[in-house]
Amino acid sequence: MKIERATTNDNVILSEITKKSKAYWGYSEEQILKWKDSLTISKEYIDANEVFNLTIENEIIGYYSYTIKENNSVKLDNLFVLPYYIGKGFGKYLINDFLIKIQKSKFKKIVLDSEPYAEKFYQKMGFKKTGSFETSIKDRFMPIMEMIL
User: Fold this and answer.
1) Local structure of residue 91 (DSSP, 8 states)
2) 74, 66 in Cβ contact below 8 A?
């Protein structure tokens, strides 16, 4: 098991992981299609941001990505694992790798918009909810979370 920087050629598999992981939470195929653009990881996105793959036996099973913001902060943009690996500690492995990288840097704050079903996971990892916003699905709210370093 290893975590390494993604290459632009990983864009297709990362997009598939994102869509399959999102669908794990019970969203319909129709809803996943509506979110197609926001769930697609482009070559340009990988080139412009910090993207790291988790591989087991040369298979990418998950990844995380973050963007650098102003005021010494970063935004955890994505953290996804294939459905088979959800609940088996791989998400925690990814977030711990991310946190170690960020804690060794100049950044003072991490922000993220959490999938509502993942809010408790992020709380267990030390993030605090600071707000929320309504999504394209009526009465579905995305928690806004942060961690001060």
Assistant:
1) H
2) yes
pTM for the predicted model, two decimal places? 0.94
Q: For the chain, which residues score pLDDT lower than 50?
A: none
* The predicted structure's pLDDT at residue 54: 98
DSSP state of 104: T
Q: Which long-range contacts (CB under 8 A, 24 or more apart) does 83-86 make?
A: 83/20, 83/21, 83/23, 83/24, 85/61, 86/21, 86/24
Tell me the CATH number at 47.
Answer: 3.40.630.30
- Residue 72 to residue 99: CA distance in whole angstroms: 15
Domain span at 62: 2-148
Instruction: Count CA atoms within 13 Å of residue 18 on its CB side.
Output: 22
First to last CA, the chain: 27
pLDDT digits (tens, 9 = 90+) for 99-134: 999 999 989 999 999 999 999 999 999 999 999 998
Domain count, the chain: 1
Which residue type does 47 have? D
| Residues contacting residue 59 through CB under 8 Å, at least 6 positions apart | none
